[in-house]
Amino acid sequence: MTTPLLRVTTTTVPPEVSRPDPAKLVAGDPVHTTWNLEDRDGLYCGIWESTPGIWRISYDEWEYCRILSGVSVITDADGTATTLRAGDSFVLAPGFSGTWEVVETTRKDYVIRV
């Protein structure tokens, strides 16, 4: 059986709006908008966008991301900061912790494997 091609855009999938857990918030009032394409069998993928702010992150899963627009800075627990801009791709591995700062509203596509 062939799996159909699934196309996700911000106009074809309804958005989910959220904010970081207040206990993880460092600065600002970031609003996250997520357009989920797939959510099954430990696989999650779609498009995510956030307005400016800083919050603490910790990962128990693998996440591949590609920045579509905006500027973010991810800082690991040791204080090493990585600035990410449109066109940049990266992987966050289980055990990663630090902060995510959205400097300019950032949109990414993502694939998460639990």
Question: What features would you describe in this structure?
Answer:
With 114 residues, the protein is mainly β. The chain has one domain (20-113): Jelly Rolls. It is 0% helix and 62% strand. It has strands spanning 16-18, 25-28, 32-40, 43-50, 53-58, 62-76, 81-85, 89-92, 97-113.
Give the strand content: over 45%
Tell me the major beta sheet.
9 strands, antiparallel
- Please indicate the count of domains: 1
Per CATH, what is the topology? Jelly Rolls
CA(first)-CA(last) distance: 25 Å
Number of helices: 0
Mean pLDDT: 93
Keyphrases for this structure?
mainly beta; Jelly Rolls; 114 residues; nine-stranded antiparallel β-sheet; 62% strand
Structure, briefly:
This protein has one domain: Jelly Rolls (Sandwich), CATH 2.60.120.10. 0% of the residues lie in helices and 62% in strands.
Helices and strands in order:
Elements: E1 16-18, E2 25-28, E3 32-40, E4 43-50, E5 53-58, E6 62-76, E7 81-85, E8 89-92, E9 97-113
